[in-house]
Design brief:
The chain has helices spanning 2-25, 127-131, 168-172, 242-252, 256-314, 326-330, 350-355, and strands at residues 41-52, 62-72, 75-78, 83-84, 115-125, 135-147, 151-166, 177-179, 198-200, 204-209, 228-238, 316-319, 322-325, 332-335, 338-341, 367-370, 376-379, 407-409, 414-416. The protein is of the alpha+beta class. Strands 1, 4, 5, 8, 9, 10 and 11 form a 7-stranded antiparallel beta sheet that branches. It has a 4-stranded antiparallel beta sheet with strand order 3-2-6-7. Strand 18 (407-409) and strand 19 form a beta hairpin. Residues 81-90 have a biased composition (Basic and acidic residues).
Length: 417
């Protein structure tokens, strides 16, 4: 009876394990929250390196290796265990390498990050994740025991070093810069339809803070709650324009009244901008036409002012520094060797007559006369002349070779020239 009982027990145990394995292989339907495909976008986190305080270097028998876990919304993903690189000790990551194989910690400043990862974790994020608490980054360690070169035992117990939270809306998206994806094939993205272009942040070295857990850190040294326990160097990237994501987040947080009035405000601003542009273009064109009209008017005014001056210059007789018009000269006549004028030389203005040709003429006032036959006469500069003076002539008063009466007046009479 006893052997039969043992056989039945073994059969039951074996049958239960077989049933459990078969059930585990079945693809049963799962209930998950629906994802908004319209507003969803791909969000990637690249873990470059990490550093843990008081973490000893790997030895031949025992070593502790860090692991990074990232939480976005309800999704958790973690990296593989980090690889120790002693050449990166005491240096923090300052740039993102173009190749994953060369993605190492570089730079001469910052905390020690000797553990290299190079893993990229991709999530499907929505606007709710942008408005949410952000991205949680957990830094953990796991112990390994080596028994020679052929056997290695991985301990299942992990130690939580610390965590940090990165705000997508205020920290990640404003720091994203556009760059072309190296694996772009020219196709469109299924989620956003924005193409292969991505926006990526520079490397950020984030401190992690111990928030509890096992209570003891690496090498059995306890962490202090609320203090920094390590650092993680990571970068972020999205496949949708960050400006559009920020605008969508701002619209979602607007009050209802402002959300309803925002389209009208945008339309008013766009209309006013279009009207201002049209007004500016018209002003530029009108200014060009006005400048041309002003130029033509200036030319016409210049010509109108120049015409009287040209007429005066053409009809003027210049002798020394005194200018007289031909009309003034023609008004003088000689009748019986007496100088007379047909009409007042300068009208009724006594001041003008006193200055030019009046009997009370001043000294050094040259006067040009004309004889009755039209030939010119020269009258010397006199100190004073009485009204209507009589000029006497001498016997040699004419010359047939001069073509006219050429006399020169003097105090005693007319002398041939």
């Amino acid at each position: 009876a006893a052997p039969v009982t043992m056989i039945n027990a073994v059969t039951l145990v074996g049958g239960g394990m077989w049933v459990q394995r078969k059930i585990g292989e079945l693809n049963l339907p799962q209930l998950t929250r629906p994802v908004d495909e319209v507003g969803a976008f791909k969000f990637s986190v690249r873990i470059h390196a990490a550093g843990v305080q008081n973490l000893s270097d790997p030895s031949l028998l025992k070593r502790e290796r860090p692991r990074v876990e990232v939480v976005v919304g309800q999704t958790r993903k973690e990296t593989e265990l980090g690889d120790f690189r002693p050449e990166a000790r005491g240096r923090a990551s300052s740039s993102v390498s173009k190749k994953a194989s060369d993605d190492s910690v570089a730079g001469a400043e910052g905390p020690a990050c000797p553990w290299h990862f190079g893993d990229t974790l991709t999530f499907t994020a929505t606007r709710a994740d942008v408005l949410g608490p952000g991205v949680q980054v957990w830094l953990k360690t796991q112990q390994e025991v080596r028994l020679g070169t052929l056997l290695q035992v991985n301990m299942s117990q992990t130690c939580e070093v610390g965590m940090c939270t990165v705000d997508l809306r205020r920290r990640v998206l404003p720091a994203c810069a556009a760059r072309d994806s190296p694996d772009s094939t020219g196709g469109s993205n299924e989620l956003s339809g924005s193409g292969p272009q991505t926006w990526e942040t520079p490397v950020m070295v984030m401190p992690v803070t111990h928030v509890g857990g096992t209570g003891r850190g690496p090498s059995d040294k306890p962490f202090v709650l609320g203090e920094s326990s390590g650092h993680v160097a990571l970068s972020f990237s999205v496949n949708v324009d960050p400006a559009m994501l920020l605008k969508s987040a701002d619209e979602a947080t607007m009050p209802m009244v402002q959300r309803l009035s925002q389209p009208l405000k945008d339309w008013t601003l766009s209309t006013a901008s279009s009207a201002a542009s049209a007004t500016q273009e018209w002003t530029v064109k009108a200014a060009g036409a006005t400048a041309e009209a002003v130029k033509v008017a200036a030319i016409q005014t210049h010509n109108a002012l120049e015409e009287p001056v040209r007429w005066v210059m053409e009809n003027a007789d210049i002798e020394g520094c005194t200018v007289k018009t031909r009309r003034q000269v023609e008004d003088w006549q000689i009748e019986g060797c007496t100088v007379k004028t047909q009409k007042p030389l300068y009208g009724e203005d006594p001041g003008a007559a006193s200055a030019f040709g009046h009997p009370q003429a001043r000294q050094h006032m040259p006067v040009r006369l004309a004889a009755t036959d039209g030939s010119p006469l020269r009258v010397p500069r006199v100190h004073s002349v009485q009204a209507a003076p009589t000029l006497a002539t001498q016997p040699q008063a004419s010359s047939s070779s001069s073509g006219g009466a050429g006399f020169v007046s003097s105090v005693g009479g007319l002398v041939p020239r």
